[in-house]
Amino acid sequence: MKTILLIQFALFSTFIGDISHNDLDQNTNNKHTISTYYKWGQVAIQKTKEQYPQAKIIDYFHVGKVSITDYSIEKFRFWIKDSNKEFGVYVDLKINNSTGELIEIQFKETKTELTQGILSAP
Prior knowledge:
Strand order of the largest sheet: 1-2-3-4-5
Radius of gyration: 23 Å
Strand content: 35-45%
Structural class: alpha+beta
Order of helices and strands: HEEEEE
Helix content: 40-55%
Number of strands: 5
Distance between the termini: 80 Å
Largest sheet: 5 strands, antiparallel
């Protein structure tokens, strides 16, 4: 009877140990993803301010990440207010996967803008 209990305890401990280890790995990956997202988000904010120096950034969010073999693209969408209009800007940061260096930045304004509280599409 003691042998059966010891075997059950050993199997149960191994199972619980695997779950804890996997959870730890997942949390570590989440922290890495958050820190990477934060890092590139700060770069996107800075470059957007440089591209639109007279504008005020109202809001932004991380659209997602696309990974290719040699590089990744971090995608952001900004909502900007410039003088009397508000509009969206997509910002794509192309990053070298080997070195982690920024390769290229692309800005693309949305076709819809908000002018004096009225949504208009040119």
